[in-house]
Each structure stands twice: as C-alpha cells, then as structure tokens.
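Example 342, ligand S-adenosylmethionine.
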Amino acid sequence: MPSEKLQSHLVTAQSVEQALASVENRLDKLNLPVLEQKLGSSLAALMRATEAEPEARWALRFSNEKAFLLSLAEDAAKSEFGRFLLCARGLNWRTTDLLFDPAYQATLRRQERDGSLCFFDRLAFFACPLFLATRERFGIFQRHTQPLVAEGASLASLPCGRMRDLLSLDYSRIVRGIRLVGLDKDPEALQGAQIFAAEVQAQKPLHGTIEFRVSDGLRPGLTEAGIRREFDLVTSNGLNIYLNDDQCVTFYRHVQEALKPGGTFITSHIVPTDEYRWDQINRDHWRLQAVILTVLIGALWEPRVKPRGLVQEQLETAGFREIRVFPDAQGIFPTFVAKKPH
Ligand SMILES: C[S@@+](CC[C@H](N)C(=O)[O-])C[C@H]1O[C@@H](n2cnc3c(N)ncnc32)[C@H](O)[C@@H]1O
C-alpha cells in the first residue's frame, strides 16, 4: 500500500501558534557560534545589514539576537507563502505556484507601491537567492520543454502541482492534437491543476487532451494501473529535492519506465553551497535565507541537497543517458535534461 504521506510537506501541518512556539523553543537551544560560523558572519553584523533593508526597521526587532530571529519568524507568518513554510516545512502545489504566478507577482508589486508588502514577501519573492534561482529554473525548464511540443506528443508533469510548467507552453502550432498528463499524489493538487487547465483552455484552446491521474513517484508504475512507455517527456520539479539518495534512484527508475524509448526527462536539484557561484549571490540575502529556512523553519529539502555529480550518477543508475546540465546564474538549482536510450 502506498503511504498517505506527501514527501514535499507535512500534511498534518501545525498551526501558526504551534510553529512559532517551536521556533522559540529552538532559539532557546540555538548554538550561536556554530550558526555564525556557518553564516561566515556574526549575527550582530547581519542584524545591522538587515536594518538597512526596506521595511525591515518597522517589521523586525533589533534589541538582541533572539528577538531579531523571533521577529523574522513572526513576520514570515504574515505572508501566505511564509505561513505555509513555517507550518508545513515545505511547499505544496499552491504555494510553489505563487513563485511562478505573474498575477501574484503583480499583487506583491502593488503592495510594494502602497507600502503594505511584508518584509518576508519582499525577501522571498524579490531577493532570496534560492527562490530567485527557483524562478529562473522555471524559465530554463520552459526553454527545454517548448521544443518537445509536437503533433501527437504525450507530455507529462510529475509532480504536476498546478501544472503551470506544461500549461504555460505555446501550443498554437498544434493542429492535429497533443496529450498533456498531470500526475500528483495530492488530489487537491490535481483539482487545482484541473481548474487552472480550464482557465487556460478558455483563453487559448489547445488541440488535444488534458488528463490528470493520482500518482506516487515512489510507487512502481506510478499509478494503480501502471504507466509504461507512455510519454515523450516527463518534466519534474519539486519532488526529488525532498527525497534521499535511494528514493531518488527509485523515482528516476519509475520515470524511466514511464517514458517511451528516446523520451526526455527534465528535472532539477538544489546543490550544496560549495557549488554555488558566489560572485553572483548577495551574501546578506543568502545569510537571511539560511537563518529563516534552516534555523526558523527547518525546511525539509535542506538535508537533501545533492552535488550535481551525484544527481548525474543517480540518473545514470536509473538508466538515463546523454545527461546535460544547465545551471541558473547563481549555480544553486541546476536543470538536468536526460534521455531514455532507444
Ligand atoms: C514543491 S511542489 C511542486 C509542484 C509543481 N511541480 C510545481 O513546480 O509547481 C511538490 C508537489 O509534489 C507532490 N508530491 C509530494 N509527494 C509526492 C509523491 N510521493 N508522488 C507524487 N507527488 C508528490 C505534492 O503534492 C506537490 O504538488
């Protein structure tokens, strides 16, 4: 029996009050010298740098280190994205999609203009190196996916979340038909994707079919009926980053089985900090990100980062060949494009 657990976030999420109480608990036990060594800076210096950021002076407390860290968590709780991260320690279909949704970005820009944007949202959406890399990665996926849009092709997204990856491609040249398949373990994600697909179809009708199936990336065959040699493309963001090494190889094997010979797999992975392009990264924003994601939230993907070489090895172990790697500008979240041999 597949487990009900979702790898990407805690389904029985704690309340904001519980999350803030556990942040406070963790802060009481915090080993400051160890944190400062990891950050390569004193927390006092980070507090001074943060105070100079727009909105920070009003949103945060700077009286001492603990008050500062706790105020960062309280400020995160004012944001939909931050609240979900604090409570569920990962991202689901809806919160991930906020990063890629132009309408949501426009709302945040309006809030910025009228002064109501919270500090956390400014950081997460416009400054935080990891989330900037995530948005850039979305564009890199689009560039490698668009050329695979062809008459009669079968394209899948796993986990599809809201399926913006496939639904925002250009299908205007398809006249005979194409097949899009959204696969996710969370039925709520499939429902969200279905609604989004209907909105997109209403604006730009696509010649072809769009279907959704409950699917577990860790289950052989992916679905109850089993999927074999069905897709020309599987695109996958945001599941492997939560998996351990063995689970990654298992997941890649299942994707390999689901692809037709010659099919393409596009995925990405967060790499360790020693592989970053540090000359492209704002260090203070990275330090704030590290404090928020590691110390305050304990993000579930943090212990699962993998060197680029290891991801390539795991893809090869699962049977993929011709693996090409496309890093983002900061070198945080490279994209892997791999082929199933003919
Ligand atoms: C970070 S979101 C990414 C969603 C989408 N790919 C995107 O980029 O917007 C993670 C997704 O993984 C799904 N998920 C978690 N565990 C899964 C599993 N074992 N099999 C399939 N999907 C899973 C969640 O329901 C969620 O939609």
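Summary: Residues 6-8, 91-93, 96-97, 159-162, 184-186, 189, 215-218, 237-239 surround S-adenosylmethionine (CB under 6 Å).
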